[in-house]
From TrEMBL:
Molecular function terms from GO: oxidoreductase activity, acting on the CH-OH group of donors, NAD or NADP as acceptor
Lineage: Bacteria, Pseudomonadati, Pseudomonadota, Gammaproteobacteria, Pseudomonadales
Segments traversing the membrane: none
InterPro entries: NAD(P)-bd_dom_sf, SDR_fam
Protein name (Swiss-Prot/TrEMBL): SDR family oxidoreductase
Coiled-coil regions, chain positions: none
CDD domains documented for this protein: SDR_c
PANTHER family to which the protein is assigned, alphabetical: SHORT-CHAIN DEHYDROGENASES/REDUCTASES FAMILY MEMBER
Signal peptide: none
Family in the record: Belongs to the short-chain dehydrogenases/reductases (SDR) family.
């Protein structure tokens, strides 16, 4: 049973990815700061297929210590899904200094450390491994939340660079969702931006976390083993590129 780390696993895209991964036969190592959300999932799935960790990736010590701590109990791990993220949906002028540090840590710095710490250990095995980063269309076309857009643009750059850095054994790809329904972020997006996303979609089936999870698991798995350094849009065709 291959082991898969998923951050931000208690809700939204992360939870949908956890559910799909377990369905596909993975053992999931789930990380989130949502204590109740993780407890609910642990009770539902049990210890045979799920291990949960309550962590806050805004904390520098957590960022630097999380992957090393996992390898104290796991000899090898197949994949990493960097999903944890913050979106405030507000102007850069409204950010406090603490909020700036928090979003940079969670949305970007955590990915830097988790990715390199995972790849460093798994490249030694000289066997196929996979990292999937969750970017956003906001990182490609901009966002009303400048800090969110900037961090997601950086995630795209990090994905492409690490595809080179971690080759030939660890593939690195990203998923770039647009307007995802049934998430906490959805309600924070200003109405005019939600309307603009919806107007540009050429496919009208609303995108939900489960739809994004299906793409993530494809990228994690062997079916797309020849793909690395790619950014895959999940946007109902709203932003052709």
């Amino acid at each position: 049973m291959n082991k898969l780390i998923i951050t931000g696993a208690a809700n939204g895209i992360g939870r949908a990815t956890l559910e799909k991964a377990i369905e596909d036969g993975y053992f999931v190592i789930a990380a989130d700061k949502d204590v109740d959300g993780l407890k609910l999932l642990q009770n539902r799935y049990g210890v045979d297929v799920l291990e949960t960790h309550v962590v806050d990736f805004a904390d520098n010590a957590v960022i630097k210590g999380f992957i090393p701590s996992l390898y104290e109990r796991h000899a090898t791990i197949y994949g990493l899904v960097n999903n944890a993220g913050i979106y405030h949906g507000k102007s850069v002028y409204a950010y406090s200094e603490e909020e700036i540090d928090e979003i940079l840590n969670v949305n970007l710095k955590a990915l830097v450390y988790l990715s390199k710490d995972f790849a460093e250990r798994e490249m030694a095995n000289e066997a196929p491994r996979s990292i999937v980063n969750i970017a956003s269309v906001a990182g490609e076309v901009g966002s009303c939340d400048a800090l969110y857009g900037a961090t997601k643009a950086a995630v795209i750059g990090l994905t492409k660079a690490n595809a080179w850095n971690f080759a030939p054994f660890v593939r690195v790809n990203a998923v770039s969702p647009a307007l995802i329904h049934d998430t906490a972020i959805y309600d924070r997006i200003p109405t005019y931006r939600r309307d603009e996303y919806a107007r540009q979609e050429v496919l009208k089936d609303p995108i939900r976390p489960s739809g994004v999870a299906e793409v993530i698991l494809l990228l994690v798995g062997d079916a797309l083993r020849h793909m690395t350094g790619r950014v895959i849009p999940v946007d109902n065709g709203a932003y052709p590129r």
